[in-house]
Each structure stands twice: as C-alpha cells, then as structure tokens.
Design brief:
Length: 850
C-alpha cells in the first residue's frame, strides 16, 4: 500500500505543480493580455465601395476583399464543413479542447514537432485578432488564456461569425463571403456542396491549396473536407460520392462592377482619402453613394465615344499598328499569342488581317474569332495627312489593308469595322440645375489611356460659349432682345492687349444693325464685342465672376467678348445652369451620402437649392408665345399681363439656398435667346427664315424645352456645346490635350464634284453631336417642360428690321419678350417697315458651325 500512497502523493504533487504552473503562467502573461471585450465592437477591415445614386457599384478600393456576413446568412452545410474540418467539438468545449491538447502533446513527445492541431476556432480567433502565428510556448499560453476569456465574453455564434469573416482564404479574400465571390462569383447561398468544401479547406493553407494556383492539392484538400463531413454524418454516402466527382470550377472573379465610371469613382476615392487618410479610407468599409445616375452616365459615355470616333475617322486613317508577318502566315495560335500582347478597351480589339479582297477583309481577334469587315466598315479610311488635310476616299480595300497587319476593329452596332485609337480628347458633364447634383461625368475618351479628368482639371478657352454671359451684363444694363447692335466691322481697335486687336466675324460677313436675339443665336462676334463696350469691361468681368469664373482667368481686354478666358467644363455647366433655374448659382456636388460598414449614415449632402424659401408656389402656365409671329410653328398668342413667377417655395430650416446672381427675368430672356440658337427664327416660306448655330440639335433632340450655345476658339483648338432644359444642363468639350494642336478641317468631294469641300471643325460640328445624342437619350420619355414666364415679363409685337413696335401681323413682325418697362415705346413708321431689309444671314454654311 505504501507504493499506492506514494503514487497518489506524486500525482497530487504533480497536480499542484501543474495548477501552480498554470496560475504562474496566467499571472505572467496577464499584463500582456488584451481586452477581449473589444471583439464585441470589432471593426472588420472592408474595402471602400462607390455606388451610383441608384445603387449600382461603380468601383471598389482596398487590398483586402471582405464581404461581412451574419451567422444566419451562412448556409448550414458550410458551417458543418468548417467545423468538421477545424473544430468538431466547437459547440461543446469552453474555448480549448483537452482532447486536442493531449493529441498535440503526444505528437510533440513522440516526434519532437509542434502541432497546431490543438487550436480551436476560438483560439484561432484569439490568434487572428491579438497574436502572431509564431509557434512559441509563450504565444500558445497567451492564446489559451485569451480563448477562455473570449468564451466568457462572446457566445458561440458570435465567435464563429468572427472566424468566418476574419479568415484569410487566398487571392486577397478575407472571410467566406468574399471567397464565394472571388472563386465562384456567387453569393453564399448559391454555393454547391463541393464549393463549400473547397472554401472550408482554405483557412489552414490558403496558398498551397488554392484552387486557382494549385488545383491538384486543392482537389485533395476539398475531398478530405468532404470525407470529414461524411465521417461526422453531415452528408450521406451518395452526396459524398457525387461531390468528390465534381470538377474544380474555381476561377478568379474581380469585384462585380455594375457601372464603369472611373473618373467619378476616382473623385470619390480622392475625397475620402483626403478626409480620413488612405489606410482608413481603404479598410473602413465606407460606402459612398454618388449623385451619378447610371442611365445618364451610360448615355454620356456612349455619346462621347461615338462623337470622338466620328471626329477621328473624318480626319483619316493613320494606318496599321504593327506588322505581324510579311510572307508566310503563322499558325492561329501564334497569331493569337501576338495579339494578346495588346489589350482591348473601349470596345476596340486588336486584330490580324488574314486576307483582303476588293472591298472586304477578313480579320482574326486574340480569341480566335474571325470576322469579315464589309466595305461600309472600311471606306471611311482616307489617308491621314494632317488635321487639316486628308487623302482621297479609297475605292478598294487593298488601298487600306494588307494581310499580316495588326489593326484595331470595333462593332459600331451594325457591323464590324476598321478602327483606330483616337488622339483627340473630350469631356462631358451634366448637372441638375435645381441643386447642382452631378448626374454624369466623363473626363475623357478612355481612363485606360489617360486618367486626366478634363471635366475638373482641364482649363480651356471658352470661345463663343461665353457670349450668353456677355449679353447678360448688357441686358441688366438696359439692352433688350430687340435692341439693334451694329453687325459691322470694328474700326476702333482695343489696344489693351499690346497690339491693335480688330475682331472679325467668322466667316468675315456682316449684316448691319441686327437684333440682340439674332446676334446671340448666330454667334456674331462683333456684336458681342460691342455689347462689352456698352456694358463696360469692368462690369462685364464682374458679371462673369458672379457666374463662378475665377477673376484670375479673366483677361482685362475686349478679347473676353469672344471667349479668351480659360475655364473647366464643370465651371461652364454650372454657369449655364443659372439660366435653367431662374438665376441661381448652385454649387456642383457629386457625393450624395457616405455610409459606414454597418450602414450608418456618416454624412449626407446638403446642396444649395435654386429657389427662395419665402416665395409662394405658383401654378404652372403653358408658354403662350411658343409660336410668335412665325418664329415657331403653331398658334401665336399675345401676352396682355404679367406672367406668374417660376420661383417656388422649397427646402426647410436646414436647407442651404443658392445665391440669385441674376434676375429671374434676365435668366428667362437669355434662355429664350438660347432657344433661338437651336430653333432659329423667321418664316422660311416667306424667305425670312434663319438658322441658329445649333440647328442640328433641333433635328436630333426634337424638343421645344432645350436651349444651348456653341463655342469655338481661334484656330479651332477648343470646341464647346453647352445647353439645358429645366431638369438637366450639359456641357461637352472637344480638343487636344496639347493646346498647340488645332482640330483642323475636314474635306470631301460632295455630289461627285472634282473640287473638295473643306470645313473647319467648330462647336456645332465637333462638340454638338455628342450633346445632341446625349440629350436625346437622356430626356427620352420625360415630358417637355412648359415655358414658365416669370413675373415682370411682358410681350410686344415688334418689327423684325428695326426692333420697334409694329402694328402689322405678317412675317415681318414677331412677338418678343421684355422685362416690364423696357419694351419699345416707339412704333416703326410705315416707311421704315416698307424700306428696311429684314436681316437674313445667307453666308456660307460654315457660319453655322460657330
């Protein structure tokens, strides 16, 4: 019995020593143990996501891809797969698994190797959040005590949820939600049993058993997980047999981008990085909802792309990009390998010319697809000589293409055609005139080739786009839409530029005294200069500053009348919005709200509203003058009393209101003139009809509520079109990033003539088509906004030649709008009406491209 007592005493002593060792170890590591209660409020590192206003994902930034999931969102079989693989007794133990510890100890004694097999999921959570992965005794001791503390602080579901969201599963995927997307492009509830088993096997070997990089080891690991599930009776033998036969289907899936809008997403990223720093911005799980409308963004991208292609192609073909072979054609695999060295973008694909017939060619893409290019897809390719000169139109495909060449092709919606990478740059931006929300923004033809955001960064000369603002100053000083301004050469030059500056019309044609409405609609240069002289240079500059233009960008000379200031497209569209909203300068903004990873609102936009909170809401009144005096088709009705105000009550006590920089009446009159830019005036059947510079917009958009202005700078280096309806204002710019390059001219043989016709690139021809296409698509299905004439606006019938009142009711007169008190008081005499020539500009068509 003595030996038994000694044995009991020995075991008891060893037990006390063990307990003492544990207590000593606990107090030794206690100062270094973190507070595990922080796990209750842990903030998982999740990427920054940027959305459109209608919830389309635009972009995602951050090294770690994580999609946090709740416990109830995880399929039961995925939980079974994880537990059967990592910790089968998870719901039974208190944080540590004695059986696992004994097994690990046995392995250590018998082999001398340390094993992680004893680590429970709770211990892995402790290690993942608070410790390193170093295999040391002190780290293991800390891990055990932390696991015990975690089990007291959190319930089993909370611990498992942390593990499922925290684990690194390869390919930058953290957590099972991200892994499902990265490897299979699926939500968790869409995964199959073999796919769940694959993901469950990744935590211990995310690289070695990665199904994308090492399919053999991944298959073995997956099947082992399935065998564990069978052993634990979580799947049947039949399910097991079927699952292990499933092939490896994993492949890399990037973030599921619903809307490609890189320029606006880069603006949003910059905003958050500047506010919170790069680390917090990329890992804080913020969701930014921009003001961009996904449909309008797609419409804008399409319109810009089509317009840039059209410009580029009418200036000629610059030739093949490479020569892949000259004599013997390589096999298809070699051709595809060479083509894959060049990436596709913006719908263009590198292709090899396989054969060329008289008016067709066969080409092959990097994917091995073979297409036939018909003559309609080749005949545009006149030889590029300069931006001002192109070669003759080809008659045969062999004049353009040769077998062995690498070229670009694209599908234009109808056919596959020859293409090329455009060199010209462009930008388009639209805002809501009522609050400044940016509804679409495209900073260039391709973010892939240039990240330069021309909407916000490119300051370019404004050209004739400045003229509505010039005439605003003149109207507020006393001019009216019927005021005659002399359309004649300017003989007294402006010498403030250091030289005698004598502005000319383009083309150099003059029509004598002309009404202000016509001068703005036809962009007559000398009339704009005389308007500046009438208002005064200082007053004109002060007016431009009110529209948001930087004083530093405004030269103190009369060239300002023709658009010499350099401004950004965003500044321009904001300024034009003032005419659309009744005279208010709204602040453009692009972030609607920012939410936290938990969906809490972090910040929300408080835009400036284009309204006055104290004015009562007025009823909508149809425009009674939409067809005055043959200016527009339809019935004409005279105004006999003031019209109701368009100013509406809006906002609340927390709202911000935009400053009203011009009167509602002035904004209305400029808008009416800008409608004439599009719709022209007069009566064509009587020989008095005339076009505005943007007459093509009338034919394409076909809406009476649109207004706009073309713009072209000297030597056609910059071209603009800006316009609006009451709901949307849009600006388009086209030019070269290199300011020294001219947009040039295009030439062609018309109607079989031997001599080529040559026309300069200009606002209506170069920027206008993009505006026309975009606004047609953007406004499709929306009701035409009736004209709202504000209080203080009256109308009177005037004589078209003199601008004076008229008693006639024929085509030589029209009803015109006036601010009450500024309407003419003098009637045109019978002799003036009989002898005066009505102004009709019958110069060459080029003047319609101003």
């Amino acid at each position: 019995m003595k030996w038994f007592k000694r044995l009991v005493i020995a075991f008891f002593s060893l037990g006390l020593l063990g307990i003492g060792a544990i207590v000593a170890a606990y107090f030794y590591v206690l100062p270094e143990l973190p507070d595990v209660t922080t796990l209750k409020t842990v903030k998982l590192q999740t990427p920054l996501r940027i959305y459109s206003s209608d919830g389309k994902l635009i972009s995602q930034f951050g090294e770690k891809r994580r999609i946090p999931v709740q416990y109830d969102d995880v399929p039961e079989q995925l939980i079974n797969a994880v537990l059967d693989t990592e910790d089968a007794r998870f719901f039974e133990h208190k944080g540590i698994d004695p059986i696992g510890i004994i097994r690990a100890a046995f392995i250590l004694v018998t082999t001398g190797k340390k094993s992680q097999g004893a680590s429970t999921i709770t211990q892995q959570v402790a290690r993942g959040f608070f410790l390193t992965r170093d295999k040391t005794y002190i780290r293991k001791t800390k891990e055990i005590f932390l696991a015990l503390k975690i089990e007291k602080a959190l319930n089993k579901e909370e611990i498992l949820t942390l593990y499922l969201n925290r684990s690194f599963l390869g390919n930058r995927a953290y957590g099972v939600g991200a892994a499902a997307q990265v490897y299979y492009g699926k939500e968790l509830n869409e995964l199959t049993l073999p796919e769940m088993a694959m993901i469950a096997g990744l935590p211990q070997s995310p690289s070695a058993a990665n199904p994308i990089r090492n399919s053999t080891r991944a298959l073995n690991r997956r099947n082992w997980v399935l065998s564990r599930m069978l052993e634990k009776r979580n799947i049947t033998q039949a399910q097991y047999e079927e699952a292990i036969q499933a092939p490896i289907t994993a492949k890399y899936h990037g973030a599921v981008i619903d809307l490609y809008a890189p320029y606006i997403s880069e603006m949003a990223r910059d905003y958050l990085v500047e506010k919170y720093g790069e680390e917090e911005a990329y890992t804080g799980g913020y969701d930014i909802y921009t003001t961009v409308d996904s449909k309008l963004q797609l419409d804008a991208q399409k319109a810009l792309r089509h317009n840039v292609y059209a410009y580029d192609e009418r200036h000629g073909y610059r030739g093949r990009t490479k020569i892949l072979w000259t004599d013997v054609q390589p096999d298809n695999e070699e051709i595809k390998a060479k083509l894959k060295q060049t990436g596709s973008f913006q719908g263009m694909h590198p292709a090899a010319v396989l054969s060329v017939d008289e008016q067709t060619a066969k080409v092959m893409t990097a994917k091995g697809d073979v297409y036939e290019l018909p003559w309609d897809g080749i005949k545009w390719a006149r030889k590029f000589i300069t931006n001002k000169r192109q070669g003759k139109a080809p008659k045969l495909a062999t004049e353009v293409l040769t077998a062995g060449q690498q070229v670009w092709i694209r599908n234009n919606g109808d056919i596959w055609q020859l293409s090329q990478v455009p060199l010209v740059a462009s930008a388009i931006v639209s805002v809501d005139p009522q609050d400044g929300a940016i509804r679409n923004l495209v900073g260039g033809f391709s973010f892939y080739t240039s990240q330069y955001n021309r909407v916000t960064q490119a300051k370019r000369q404004l050209g004739s786009n400045i003229k509505p603002f010039i005439y605003t100053a003149a109207l507020e000083k006393g001019y009216t839409l019927s005021t005659l301004i002399n359309n004649a050469p300017i003989n007294k030059p402006d010498t403030r530029q250091g030289t005698a500056w004598r502005p000319k019309n383009s083309p150099d044609v003059y029509g004598g005294p002309t009404r202000l409405r016509v001068g703005l609609a036809q962009s007559i240069n000398v009339m704009s200069v005389r308007a500046v002289r009438y208002s005064g240079l200082d007053a004109t500059i002060a007016q431009l500053v009110k529209f948001g233009f930087d004083p530093a960008d405004l030269p103190r000379n009369e060239s300002i009348a023709l658009g010499s200031p350099s401004v950004t497209p965003l500044q321009v569209v904001t300024a034009f919005s003032t005419f659309a909203n009744g005279g208010y300068l709204v602040e453009p903004y692009f972030i609607e709200r920012v939410e936290s990873a938990n969906g809490d609102l972090i910040e929300a936009a408080n835009p400036t509203l284009a309204c006055t909170p104290i004015a009562p809401e007025q009823p909508l009144v149809d425009d009674p003058f939409a067809a005055m005096a043959n200016e527009l088709p339809g019935d004409a009705t005279a105004a006999t009393e003031d019209m109701p105000s368009t100013t509406e009550q809006c906002g609340n006590e927390d709202s911000r209101f935009a400053p009203q920089i011009i009167s509602e009446q002035t904004a209305f009159l400029i808008t009416e003139s800008l409608k004439s830019v599009i719709w022209g005036g007069g009566d064509w059947s009587k020989g008095t009809g005339w076009n505005g510079t943007a007459w093509r917009a009338a034919r394409v958009v076909k809406r009476r509520d649109i207004a706009g202005k073309t713009g072209t700078t000297n030597e056609s280096r910059d071209t603009w079109f800006s316009g609006f309806n009451p709901k949307l204002a849009t600006t388009v710019w086209v030019g070269f990033d290199d300011h020294s390059q001219e947009l040039g001219r295009t030439s062609w043989n018309a109607n079989g003539a031997k001599d080529q016709i040559s026309l300069a690139e200009a606002g209506a021809k170069t920027a206008g088509p993009a505006w026309n296409e975009f606004m047609k698509d953007a406004l499709e299905g929306t009701p035409v906004e009736p004209t709202k004439a504000p209080e203080g606006i009256v109308s009177a019938r005037i004589d078209l030649a003199t601008g004076k009142l008229s008693r006639k009711t024929d085509y030589t007169t029209r009803f015109e709008y006036f601010i009450a008190g500024t309407e003419p008081t003098e009637y045109a005499t019978e002799q003036e009406e009989d002898n005066s020539d009505i102004f009709i500009d019958k110069s060459e068509e080029e003047d319609l491209f101003q």
